[in-house]
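S.,

Sequence below, as promised.
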Amino acid sequence: MMKQKKIPMRMCVGCREMKPKKELIRVVRSPEGIVSLDPTGKKPGRGAYVCRSGNCLTRAIRQKQLERQLEAALSEEASEELKSTLAQIMAQEEAAGTDDG
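The prediction came back faster than expected:
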């Protein structure tokens, strides 16, 4: 009998649901204090996770959950940049998914 591999779970700071780490996207505050999305999940710094939907990211920003988790203040420009980057990532994933079909 094979041992089942443990799936790492993380909580989305927007909807507060526990989901597999691969389904979420990491937002990271670098040691320099720059906040950005981390699709690979490997950038150094303090991280928080959000669902791959704009709704959760918007909610996390509006309720200041992201600021609390990252221990950093988010400017309006940084918030907008996160939203646009997430939209780009979603578009790329959608395009990659339709090519297979």
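The chain has one domain: 10-100.

Coffee later?
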